[in-house]
Design brief:
Helix content is 45%, strand content 20%. The protein is built from 5 helices and 4 strands; from the N terminus they run ααβαβαβαβ. A 4-stranded mixed β-sheet has the order 3-2-1-4, with helices on both faces. β2, α4 and β3 form a beta-alpha-beta unit.
Length: 98
């Protein structure tokens, strides 16, 4: 699945994002670079609503729902969880979807 198809699919499914208390969603990595191969996962950064109490189980449910929606494995992370050595570059290349 290419970048435009992924972004279109995510944008069309706002109810999923609302249900999971998502404030923003961004795609980065091989999909953004146009280097995704068959079987590649999709790297997604998520930020949750400030008042949302999102725990591990809710995080995993979102990851699974995104994987099911896109039909590929999703590598889901938050900006705060990024490795400090990679964080700046990832945040620069990330393309906001929602």
């Amino acid at each position: 699945m290419d970048k435009e198809k992924i972004m279109e699919t995510l944008r069309k499914n706002k109810e999923l994002l609302v249900r999971h208390h998502v404030r923003s969603l961004s795609v980065f990595g091989s999909v953004v670079h146009g280097e995704a191969a068959v079987g590649s996962d999709v790297d997604i950064l998520v930020e949750f609503q400030p008042d949302a109490a999102v725990g591990l189980f809710e995080f995993i449910r979102l990851k699974n729902d995104l994987s099911a929606l896109l039909g590929v494995e999703v590598d889901l992370g938050t900006p705060d969880a990024l490795h400090p050595a990679l964080k700046e570059d990832i945040l620069k290349e990330a393309v906001r979807v929602a």
